[in-house]
Every structure is written in structure tokens, then in C-alpha cells.
Amino acid sequence: EVQVVESGGGLVQPGGSLRLSCAASGFTFSNYGMSWVRQAPGKGLEWVSSINSGGSSTYYVNSVKGRFTISRDNAKNTLYLQMNSLKPEDTAVYFCARLAFGGYNGPPVDWGQGTQVTVSS
Questions:
Q1: Taking a C-beta distance cutoff of 8 angstroms, is the pair 64, 81 a contact?
Q2: Which H or E element spans position 115?
Q3: Number of H helices and number of E strands within the chain?
Q4: Which tens digits make up the pLDDT trace of 46-61?
Q5: What is the pLDDT of residue 113?
Q6: What is the pLDDT of residue 87?
Q7: CB 81 within 8 Å of CB 35
Q8: How far apart are CA 82 and CA 20, in angstroms?
């Protein structure tokens, strides 16, 4: 059974940092691209960042460029999202998704349950 489980969310003040993790199981992690997707209250899904299977290619939405860093540890079957200089508009539920292919731009095929990130003073 494929599973992706997010962790690391929480409440942080503006300007603070959080690191999200996504533990994967049930598939060969190193063969698939992965993504972080978020949903703010009352809004639709927003693709935040993606990474290819080997970790050599990445994508970031403009609003997080220079603040967020996606990475993966294929030996540990874990995806990360380091979030720095957080802003209130980063408040959302963050989902981890397995992509259909090894590239970073494939469609998502499996989703986690999400982890809440709240940026507020």
C-alpha cells in the first residue's frame, strides 16, 4: 500500500522557519518525482514545489522562490520542504504528493493527509 505521511507543521511567527517532512512507503521512492501542494483557507490547491526522482531538478512557485527549499533523501524515503521567512499568506494545509513519473512535472497520483502550517503573530 502506497503511503505518504506529512509532518512538521505548526504555528510559527512571521519571519520564522519550519521544515516539513514526508515519509513515503509502499513504492520505490527513488523512481518518482514528488511535490508539495498547499491549500489556504477558502482557496484552491496551489503547487508550491516539485523535485525529480534524483533530486537534480526542482520547481518553485514564484511566491516562495528564495524562501523555500525542496529536497529529498532517497536512502530514507523522505521528502522535505524547508520554509524560511514565513509570511501569513503561507498559512495553509500542506500536502505531499507522489507524481506519476520520475520528472518533477508529472500529475499527482498519491496524496498525504496534509499538515497544517499557520503563520501568525
A1: no
A2: strand 115-119
A3: 0, 11
A4: 999 999 999 999 999 9
A5: 97
A6: 98
A7: no
A8: 6
